[in-house]
Each structure stands twice: as C-alpha cells, then as structure tokens.
Write a structure and sequence with these properties.
This protein has 6 helices and 6 strands; from the N terminus they run βαβαβαββααβα. By secondary structure, the chain is an alpha/beta fold. Strands 1, 2, 3, 4, 5 and 6 form a 6-stranded mixed beta sheet that branches. Helix 3 links the parallel strand 3 and strand 4. Helix 1 runs parallel beside helix 2. The longest helix has 14 residues.
Length: 149
C-alpha cells in the first residue's frame, strides 16, 4: 500500500512515479486530500492507471483528489470516507487569458466518463459551484457507480 495524505502540490506526479518505480509491489493507493493542483492530479491519475493500481478513499478525498481516485482499477472507500466534487473556477475569482475553465472541466468530465461515471451524475457533480463541495458517502458513491466493491 502507498498512502497519500495531504495537498496535491507541484511535483506530485514525478514523486509518485519515482516511488512506484522503486516499489513495484504496490497494488493500492489510499487517498486523503482536500485537493490541490489539477494538473498534478491528472499526472498522478495517469500513473495510477499505468500501474493498474486500486484506489481507496480514507477520510475526505475532495476536488482534484477525485481524479486520482477515479483512476483506480478497483475503487473503494472506508466507511467514514467522503468524496467531494465541485464545478471548476479560478481561485482568484477572476479570469486568466490562458485558462479556459470550461475546457479544463470538460477534460476531467471526459476522463470521469471514461472511468464509468454516468452522464446524469457528471451533470450533478459539475453543477456544484466552485466555492462549495458536493460530498458523497460510500453508499452515495456506490449508487453513482464510483465504487467497484
């Protein structure tokens, strides 16, 4: 088991790939995170997919962490865990000319769709405003098709 607990920061993808290369016996990544850098979460999700790892949420796995969770070959949650989703926005509340928030959200919507999440659920999760969070219990996550166990 590999445990990830904390903010998703710059360099996570590189560190994760290094740890997985040094520890080929890892079969599951446990996740507890409030989220963080979406590009790093995408890179970490690719590493999880490439290694065929399972994922397990422990505590809260929110925002960008849910991409890492969804990448799991097998996906499960501890009984008290929650998955947190919201629509995308910029932290500053303003706009940046080189960032198309709708396009970035669509990239991750497409990824989640490819991982088996139904369109009705995707509509619901991306409707949550960026400053709020839609939290799902294990039972709600199972009903939405997020869990494999």
């Amino acid at each position: 088991e590999l445990h990830f607990d904390g903010q998703i920061t710059f360099g996570l993808t590189q560190r994760l790939n290094g740890v997985l290369a040094e520890n080929p016996q890892v079969v599951i990544v446990t996740l507890t995170s409030p989220g963080g850098r979406i590009y790093e979460a995408r890179g970490a999700a690719k590493a999880i997919l490439a290694h065929g790892l399972d994922t397990r949420a422990m505590g809260d796995c929110a925002s960008a962490c849910t991409l890492m969770f969804a990448a799991g070959n097998g996906r499960s949650m501890e009984p008290d865990a929650r998955l947190g989703f919201h629509g995308y926005g910029l932290e500053s509340g303003g706009s940046l000319p080189h960032v198309d928030v709708a396009a970035e959200q669509e990239k991750d919507r497409s990824f989640l769709r490819s991982r088996g999440l139904p369109e009705a659920f995707l509509d619901r999760l991306f409707d949550a405003p960026p400053e709020s969070m839609l939290f799902l219990s294990p039972a709600e996550a199972a009903a939405a098709g997020l869990l494999s166990e």
